[in-house]
Amino acid sequence: SREIRLASRPFGEPDEGTFALVETQVPEPGAGQILVRNTWMSVDPYMRTRMNAGESYIPPFEVGAPLEGSAIGEVVASEADTIPVGAAVSHFAGWREYAVLDAAHVEVIDVENVRPQDYLGALGTTGLTAYLAVTEIAPVREGDVVFVSAAAGAVGSVAGQLARKFNAARVIGSAGGPEKTRKLTETFGFDAAIDYRAGSVAEQLAELAPEGIDVYIDNVGGDHLEAAIESLNDHGKVAMVGMISTYNATEPSPAPRNLPTAQTKRLTLRGLVISDHFDRFPEYIETAAPLLADGSLVTEETIVDGLENAPSALLGLLRGANTGKMLIRLTA
Ligand code: NDP
């Protein structure tokens, strides 16, 4: 069995020296435990923030310890009455090929009707994040103009489509490069797209939304947040979902430089930490599963094969190498 450990804390962009691929013994389950062979792992931007020292809403990764994250696997040995060998499970012991887990710390999943990797994407934390952003953190109302950043990514692509389903008048997305921006309008149903690499976000947003925007789903922070504050109408709302433009930064971002405008426009900027809302999963699944099944919620994924390629997948995610959900596929 192999696992990936944090070898050293990165300053700025991580590199291969940040990670160590280590051979380990396949662990044996004790009473009440199961042995899981992982089949899919989620790669998430917040994993970069856990590499820094210092307390956040989630404790930092420890140097020398395996990384962790959401994963799907198959039970290959069981000392727990409740979970048989062969069951598919969802859990949090990713970044390793085999994991021993307490039965209480895994969820048995239905892989007859749902693709296992969807539990890491549209039907997992990714989708729930998008759903809460547009329904609760910055609720979209009928007729709203909505702006979504990192819109070709996992959360952003779902958020844009859900905003539309919840009656937004127009949904504008931003992404890096012509291919992704084309995908926003052609695949994910956005009304208009901004290529933030091609020019100023503020100028492009002002041009595409001359009437202003009402809701901003912020996955990026920095210049995107500044542009949104400029374009938001009075009483507009921002869901602060993520700040990916800052995760590798070695200095605080100067943007947004226009925060005083948020006061004069009476804006609401509200942060989201999705683990506060896991009780909303059943309601979300009820909404999203039929949309996914009938094809009216379109998702994409970028699949990287092999545990050894997980570090470069994470580095790639932070540079925009993915469209939709970034996943690692593990084979026996
Ligand atoms: P994505 O699939 O969106 O992948 C990240 C994307 O971010 C990349 O593909 C890249 O797309 C974009 N990106 C990277 N750097 C920059 C930059 N400097 N400026 C603009 N865009 C950039 O990841 P997720 O959907 O998993 O996550 C999206 C956001 O949501 C992240 O900020 C993440 O931290 C946050 N999140 C927050 C949660 C919460 O509980 N609050 C839960 C889950 C996610 P491009 O090619 O377009 O640049």
UniProtKB/TrEMBL annotation:
CDD domains: PGDH. The keyword Transport does not apply. GO terms for molecular function: oxidoreductase activity, acting on the CH-CH group of donors, NAD or NADP as acceptor. Residues 17-328 form the Enoyl reductase (ER) domain. Keywords: Oxidoreductase. Transmembrane segments: none annotated. InterPro entries: ADH-like_C (IPR013149), ADH_N_2 (IPR041694), ER (IPR020843), GroES-like_sf (IPR011032), MDR_fam (IPR045010), NAD(P)-bd_dom_sf (IPR036291). PANTHER family: PROSTAGLANDIN REDUCTASE, PROSTAGLANDIN REDUCTASE 1. This is Putative NADP-dependent oxidoreductase. It comes from Saccharomonospora xinjiangensis XJ-54.
